[in-house]
Design goal:
The protein is an alpha+beta fold. The protein contains 8 helices and 6 strands. A 6-stranded mixed sheet has the order 4-3-2-1-5-6, covered by helices on one side. Helix 1 packs antiparallel against helix 6 and helix 1 packs antiparallel against helix 8. The termini are far apart.
């Protein structure tokens, strides 16, 4: 399968999940400004017209988009990994957390704050409205190791999103000690440590390319 990604973007959650599952995949980096696949110079929009990562092409040639859907696919494709949940309330809880991370944290909180073109008023409004989501998460994580009763694709997504606090000074993790402890603990997990280290190096190379092109 092929995973189209950009360094340290939300697509890193799928990389973590694939590493956790021990799955083979081709990792194809997409240059965000130009929507170019770096490996062959092709236009990424011929794969995903919206031009957003992650995008996954399965071994059968099916193209999947949207982070939550791709993560659920990986969990189902590799059930032996334990990344998913069985049918019933546990599976619904997994969907609940994937939706919460994607809407309340990823899009609701972090994207406005990370957007360099967003007015300061927009950033301030996003922080005022959505920091309470971290309060909720902090309360939930008290005494818990993972979001479910085991490591799942939801944890892969959550760690990926929390990792963005490195670039968002207004969101200081020390204000949410349970979230901080969760993040620091999971950063030591081999699949996550490997993904972060690899993508950080790719991110530095990406920034160097942008500087050279400026």
């Amino acid at each position: 399968m092929d995973l189209y990604f950009s360094p340290l973007a939300c697509s890193m959650a799928t990389r973590v999940a694939l590493y956790e599952a021990g799955a083979d995949a081709n990792y194809l980096e997409v240059d965000s400004p130009t929507k170019t696949v770096l490996k062959d110079g092709s236009d990424f929009r011929t794969v995903n017209p919206i031009g957003l990562v992650p995008t996954l092409r399965t071994d059968e040639g099916v193209v999947l988009t949207e982070n939550a859907a791709i993560l659920q696919y990986v969990a189902d494709r590799f059930p032996q990994s334990g990344l998913g949940a069985t049918q019933g309330i546990d599976r619904t809880r997994l969907h609940q957390w994937l939706c919460f991370i994607g809407t309340e944290l990823h899009k609701g909180l972090f994207i406005p704050v990370l957007d360099r073109k967003a007015p300061q008023e927009t950033k301030a409004y996003a922080l005022e409205k959505n920091l309470s989501r971290l309060d909720y998460l902090d309360n939930y994580l008290e005494g818990r190791e993972f979001l479910l009763d085991h490591f799942s694709v939801a944890d892969a997504y959550l760690v990926t999103v929390i990792n963005w606090t490195m670039a968002t000074p207004p969101i200081e993790l020390s204000k949410w000690p349970n979230v901080k402890a969760y993040y620091e603990r999971l950063r030591q997990r081999p699949s996550i440590a490997k993904a972060v280290a690899e993508e950080f190096e790719l991110y530095k190379a990406e920034q160097a390319r942008k500087k050279a092109a400026a």
